[in-house]
Sequence to fold (68 residues):
Amino acid sequence: MGENNTISINVRFPQAAADGLKALSDIQGVTVSDYIRALVAADLEKNKDVLEDYQRKVVELRSKMKFE
Fold:
């Protein structure tokens, strides 16, 4: 998580959801992409402790693996 690299992820929404996202982003005065990025950033922040714990466990498990 603290990286500044940007990647593109394609997602698909039903038309009604896309229309709702467009309306909400218009109300906020931002693009749909910016609106979705803000939603994702808020969810990542909300789950920060879980994600950090997961990362620690991945590092721990990888260090226990032995490749021959």
Notes: The radius of gyration is 17 Å.
